[in-house]
Amino acid sequence: MHVDIQLTFGKPIKLTVNPKDDKPKVPPTLSILSPQGGDGPQMCLAAGFFPKQGTLTLTEGDKTVPHEVDKAVLSTTSGNYYYAKYSTEKIEACEMNGIKEIRKDSDAKEKSKEGNQIDCKSRNEGTSKTEEINNTDDFKSNSLSLLVTGLRLLLAKAVAVNVMMTIKAFLT
Question: Of 30, 53, 76, 104, which sits with the fewest C-beta atoms within 10 Å of its C-beta?
Fold first, then answer.
């Protein structure tokens, strides 16, 4: 019979690795996100901030709820932190480190649904490039795009198999 017993003496040790503090402070980019259908939990996203300190405050109706960002996730590519907080209540506003995001009214959603193109501005440092995303519901163009992507994948697999067979023929 095998018994697995885990014993802990004293306080357990927690190791936290943080990037150097010589990096300049970066304010968060706040966004209030809700499900497309309107029902379900809403979220406040604090993106791209440094250092990992502060309080994310959600305004839900007439009450404010503070949340510590000590469990924010570090992006290894940018060196900045990301934190998301969900709520079952309707989030009216989201605030962190003096920056406040207020929920957009439903008219803004209606306008974005009407157009087929949405302009997205990149917030990366050193770039102010505007990208366009085609948001189309055209079945014919979506099917054609899917077919072309499938043919590209099939061609890439065929080339890979031919290269492997050629290498095998030279080695034997």
Answer: 76
